[in-house]
Amino acid sequence: MTLGSDVVSEDRRIAVVAGGVGAAKFLRGLLQVHSNHLVTALVNVADDFRLHGLAISPDLDTVTYTLGGLVNPETGWGRAKESWTVRDELERLGGETWFNLGDLDLAVHLYRTQRLGDGATLTEVTKEICDKLGIEAQLLPASNQEIRTQLKLEGGGWVDFQDYFVAQQHSVAVENLRFQGIEEALPGPSVISSLEEADAIVIAPSNPFVSVNPVLEIAGVGDVIKRRRENVVAISPIVGGAALKGPASRMLEELGFERSVVGIASLYEEFASALVIDHEDVELAAKVEAAGLRSVVTDTIMSDQGRAAALAKAVLENT
Ligand code: FO1
């Protein structure tokens, strides 16, 4: 096969720093245009928590379900064709139902919790689930140790991430953030080596504060990404000053950054040499460059799988 200038070389190893829904859509696009076994996703675990005694890993599950073709297309998380028998009965009993766990999703949580109880690591359990779902790309939890995002909310104290995000529907302004346990946490197996060996590293269009930062702040992870800066490209999760999903744009302002792709550029300046921004933000390209990142302007809104694949192709062509 002759490689044209627009054909991406097939043998490059790609590492993707990933949060939940935005990262999952990007990865699904990437797997359509690149050899799946050459893709590794390093997935945030700081949203993880325990409920009903179960080990819940929302970002890992969002990525796994999306790549396995099982995700609920309306929410971007949880399972398609889900049923809610357990949750409804729990509600009747007066149990905790603020975090919606469907029946199919619960089976995955039962499996994960049992395996962790047997002594397996989260890395091992994630691989077992991926193998069962036929996912060829490698999904690596960023750490096997407990890291827990907490947020200090305006007019209140510190709360756990899912309390802020789901119970309070991220409606309260954030004053500060911390990642409990991050000082002691080690990167999961293969996390550092996959970053060192990658031909290109992509920071997915995820929330920089609560999805990407708790990966970058794990010992050694941020350092290797900084060292590889010339091979790192970030994708802005902000388009036209707004996040497509979640509170990222409000958080930019609340935490003292410009509420635009320029704010994203200032957050990633040390880690990435290029920032992918949407056509809608083309007039901010010069400001992104002034912040120290090459700007790549393309369509970043992944409204369907074809657009996600086109974004992935554009990203690969610019790394
Ligand atoms: N997000 C919600 O807004 N409400 C929910 O009830 C909810 C349940 C849920 C269950 C399993 C799962 O894997 C994810 C779930 N999410 C829910 C999404 C999740 O909390 C967030 O999208 C991430 O943690 C942020 O990346």
Protein described:
The protein has 319 residues and is an alpha/beta fold. The protein has one domain: 3-Layer(aba) Sandwich (Rossmann fold), CATH 3.40.50. 39% of the residues lie in helices and 18% in strands. It contains 13 helices and 14 strands. It has helices spanning 21-33, 58-67, 85-92, 103-118, 122-133, 161-167, 191-197, 208-216, 221-227, 248-254, 261-268, 285-290, 305-317, and strands at 14-18, 39-43, 49-51, 54-56, 138-141, 148-153, 158-160, 174-180, 200-203, 232-235, 238-239, 242-243, 274-278, 294-298. Strands 5-2-1-9-10-13-14 form a 7-stranded parallel beta sheet, with helices on both faces. Strands 7-6-8 form a 3-stranded antiparallel beta sheet. Strands 3-4 form a two-stranded antiparallel sheet. Strand 6 (148-153) and strand 7 form a beta hairpin. Helix 1 (21-33) packs parallel to helix 2 (58-67). It is globular, with a radius of gyration of 19 Å. Residues 1-7 have low confidence and may be disordered. The protein binds ligand FO1. Ligand FO1 is lined by residues 19-20, 47, 58-59, 61-62, 77-78, 99-101, 105, 162, 165-166, 211.
